[in-house]
Amino acid sequence: MKIDGNIANELFRAFNIQRWNDRPRPMDLYEMDKHAHKMMIAYCLGKYEESEGREIEWERLIRHSVFELFRRIVTSDIKSPILDQIRKNKQVYHQLNEYVYRQLQPKFTGTSLEEPLHDYLFAKHEGEGDLTDRVVSAAHIYASYLEFQSIFPVNPTYYQNIKIQTELSNTLNKYRDLVGIRKLINRLSVSNFIDLCGQLRYQIRWAQTPRVPQTTVLGHSMMVAVLSYFMTVDLPHCPKRIFNNFFCGIFHDLPEVVTRDIISPVKRASNELEDLISSIERELGEQEIFPLIESDWVSEIKYFTQNEFANKYIDNGETILAQGIDDITTNYNENRFSPLDGEIVRAADRFSAFLEAWNSCVAGIKSDEFLAALDKIKKEHLAKFRSPIDFASMFDDFDIDSLK
What is the CATH number of the domain that holds 249? Predict the structure, then answer.
């Protein structure tokens, strides 16, 4: 799907939407960060259900989660408990969704997701409330529960704290039939993995440069995942290709939870330094990340986090580099090959960085560093990428000269 300025800017708004903004907070909590953490949790919950022989429709899980993020962007001032009450009144909820669609439809007009967006908002889905939906809903509640735990100690109104905590706990208990929720409630090791992932919301990107909004590594991961999904959805794709490209975006910066955000110019100061940093990331991952997850997930998480920007597939248990996106489409576009378009994830990563610098400059906080980064990223996408995807067109609506 072509990503134009309308869609990119609408998505970027999630970096500005604050959560729990009616309560004291030790730090700002943003919508984009919440959805990234939610998808990390959904991955774990879905994997546990699959281990029990149950089927998760991952492509639908991803598509609906992306649409829900856009709905939350449009309805940002409505608190979740109020939205839950609105859902119970079908007529009012339909009217709310009509408003959401009026805001979003012009941005998706002519894309392959225009009709699926309409169906998500208005169609009665077969199997609504099924296992896949329950995994997403449970992940949403648990992510909210963790957010509230972070602000509980600084909120002075004790009875309100207990009331909210009880409501979240009671709602979470409704999902105890899910294996992963039972493990999280009982604080087994996967809960430590989820906590570790959540630490990425404390790591501010471009930390050495004043800017707005101050995006986090966690929120950036969701941005990359959604952009990767948009770029993949129009390709011929097996379900695993969508799954891999999206969750590679979600987890691609996971090693930074143990190394912190080392900026690209430092990483690339020399080939030797870049290789050393990658080696350290792998070593620390073995020590601090992989022991927290189930052993049969480790190879997949490594697939997402090691050499993550390479086009690749798996054959007879061996990871093999593909010649390009066309090579994957022609020869390896089957679930058994587990194809991953690292080139797409890299383009999404760079475009996300571009949008971060662009939005700060538009807001009036700009620097020579930002302008140089914008120019460099745009030029590199104009100059290369032998790909069926027109990566350069993503920059058509962004005139760098207008910022100077």
Answer: 1.10.3210.10
Distance between CA 254 and CA 244 in Å, rounded? 15
Query: Would 207 be classed as within a structural domain?
Result: no
60, amino acid identity: R
- What is the structure's pLDDT at 261? 59
Asked if the structure places residue 306 within a domain, the reply is yes
Judge whether residue 372 has pLDDT over 50. Answer: yes
Same domain, 167 and 102: yes
What percent of the chain stands above pLDDT 70? 94
Task: With residue 373 as reference, give the H or E element that holds it.
Answer: helix 368-383
Instruction: State the Cα–Cα distance between residues 296 and 353, nearest whole angstrom.
Output: 33
Q: How far apart are CA 20 and CA 168, in angstroms?
A: 14
Q: How far apart are the first and last CA of the chain?
A: 30
- Confidence (pLDDT) at 270: 61
Reduced to 3 states (helix: H, G, I; strand: E, B; else coil), residue 231 is helix
Work out whether strand 318-321 and strand 311-315 pair parallel, antiparallel, or are unpaired: antiparallel
Provide the whole-model pTM.
0.94
| Domains: count for the chain | 2
If asked whether residues 190 and 303 sit together in one domain, one would say no
* E strand spans, 261-386: 311-315, 318-321, 340-341
Query: What's the domain range around 267?
Result: 217-403
Residue 278, pLDDT score: 74
Strand order in the sheet with 311-315: 318-321, 311-315, 340-341
Q: Using omega within 30 degrees of 0 as the cis cutoff, is the peptide bond preceding 265 cis? A: no
| Cα 98 from Cα 281, distance rounded (Å) | 47
Do residues 101 and 146 both lie within one domain?
Answer: yes
d(CA 151, CA 146): 9
Higher pLDDT, 84 or 346: 346
Q: Is residue 374 part of a domain?
A: yes
End of a domain among 202, 231, 258? Answer: 202
Residue 263's pLDDT is what? 57
Summary mean pLDDT of the chain: 91
Residues 182 and 315 in one domain: no
**191 and 240 share a domain?**
no
267 pLDDT more than 70: no
| pLDDT given at position 380 | 86
